[in-house]
Amino acid sequence: MSLVTSPEFIRRIESIVGSAGLVQDPERMHSYLVDWRNAYTGNAALIVRPANTEQVAAVVRLCHEANVALVPQGGNTGLCGGSIPDATGQQVVLSLTRMTRIREIDPANATITVEAGVILQQLQQAASEAGRLFPLSLGAEGSCTVGGNLATNAGGTAVLRYGNMRELTLGIEVVLPDGRIWNGLRGLRKDNTGYDLKHLFIGSEGTLGIITAAVLKLFPATHSMATAWVALPSPEAAIELISHIRGVCADRLTGFEMMSRQSLEFVLSHVAGCRDPLTSEQPWYALIELRDTISDAPLTELLETCLSHAFEQGLVIDAVIASNDSQAAALWGLREGISEAQNHEGPSLKHDISVPVSQIPAFIERTDKALQARFPGVRIVSYGHIGDGNLHYNISKPVGADDVAFKANELAIMDIIYQKTGEFNGSISAEHGLGQSKPAAAVRFKDPLEIELMRAIKRTLDPTGLMNPGKVFAAEQ
Question: Does this UniProt record's set of keywords contain Flavoprotein (predicted)?
């Protein structure tokens, strides 16, 4: 019997979190051990669910003393397996889903302080009830948690205007690998007193410590909106169009999503209730959203003016502007349904890259050409937050191809995509993180000095390598 499954260790864990905070039944454990896509599966000795920061700290101290590895987990909605334990059954999954308190809303300081287990949608609702806006928005917002959003530096559809989680966070509370609690919950816009330590933990995927709470920025609520679905001749047209709209609308431009026809075809085929907003098929589309804090802002007229100019310039082939909230939601449904729809076409190889906005057309052209030359017939699903250079570049098998044979080419396909990403000075992971799917690729495609510095930070904060081992780094050093 290993220490982690010994009656004494389990008794000590239960004395900290109580019976409600301990999951040992295999049937109840299952949902914590498999990611939502069934792409990653692990095993664990225990699922521990602390109810507050002090309990988290006590569990971490106990595991540190016993040399037991911990895998922090929030809503388990990640795409890279970052919250799934390994197959040994010797790790403890530490779920933060019981930590759901909204500790404080400070309208004058425009901040909200929440615990790591708060679901993003609940955070958005709390902000709305206070007459404010928390702008982070993504497809999993009904189940992902603030802790996971912070651990992966989540982005989403409103990054163009508001930034990702780094920009939205003023302070955090962290349990360190030895169980000490760093209280960095400061709602300050200015604090020039040395290193800004919160940025070490945001995006670290639980490998340096466990974020238990955060002070987040709030914004004025928006009261008017205009949404358009636009057909484009090319990605180059999308880049010119977004530049034009930004010049006219400034920060009213909240969202600008680009997607290929192949992306839309999958949604129309597999997502119930969806229909093509336009009468003819075009190679590329953009979903554009303007928002304003003024309730009667003339956003539709402004968007019509921008698109009229774009028609004259040959940047837009066709367009439709939503006339009500229901129509706008239907347009967003086309964009948000892409990832799930692609799963119905068999195994898909998903890549979350970023390159400078100006280089997106060249990246798509060269990478498409290289893939089709090496793997004829693969179906390329390109879509993403074009305004910040983040492209989801996903590959589905050729029609009628064998699943196993297609999956056997995963590394070769990845190499082509990441090599092209590097040629444009881009990143192999824009917002999904590295998890357990990309550590080896990070070593190959990041600057060796960057990797050396990252490992030095890891060794300093977690010298025994017990915090989410095997994530971000292929092997703890």
Answer: yes
Question: Which structure tokens are listed for 381?
Answer: 């699903």
Domains in the chain: boundaries: 3-95, 102-220, 224-339, 345-445
Q: What's the CATH number of domain 345-445, 3.30.70.2740, 3.30.460.80, 3.20.20.70, 3.40.50.10490? A: 3.30.70.2740
Question: What is the per-residue DSSP string for 203-266?
Answer: TSTTSS-EEEEEEEE-EEPP-EEEEEEEEES-HHHHHHHHHHHHHHHGGGEEEEEEEEHHHHHH
Spatial neighbors of 209 by CB under 8 A, at least 6 apart, are 174, 175, 176, 177, 182, 201, 461, 462, 467
32: left (phi over 0), alpha (psi -120 to 50) or beta: alpha
Contact 87, 43 (CB under 8 A): yes
Three-state DSSP class for 273? coil
Alpha helices per DSSP H over 108-234: 120-129, 146-151, 159-162, 165-168, 198-201
Tokens of 256: 């600008």
Nearest to 195 by CA among 465, 474, 476, 457: 457
The size of the chain, in residues, is 477
- 3-95 against 224-339: fold identical: no
DSSP structure string for 12-52: HHHHHH-GGGEE--HHHHHHHHB-TTS--B---SEEE--SS
E strands, 68-206, where? Answer: 70-73, 92-95, 102-106, 111-115, 132-133, 169-175, 181-184
pLDDT tens for 240-280 read 999 999 999 999 999 999 999 999 999 999 999 999 999 99
CB atoms within 10 A of CB 100: 16
Burial class (CB in 10 A: 0-12, 13-18, 19+), 103: middle
The helix (H) or strand (E) run that includes residue 109 is none
pLDDT, residue 156, reads 86
- Class of the 102-220 domain? alpha beta
Give the tens place of pLDDT for each residue, 293-345: 999 999 999 999 999 999 999 999 999 999 999 999 999 999 999 988 998 99
Rounded Cα distance between 396 and 84, Å, is 25
pLDDT digits (tens, 9 = 90+) for 33-51: 999 888 899 999 999 999 9
Q: What is the pLDDT of residues 77-132, one digit of tens each?
A: 998 999 999 999 999 999 999 999 999 999 999 999 999 999 999 999 999 999 99
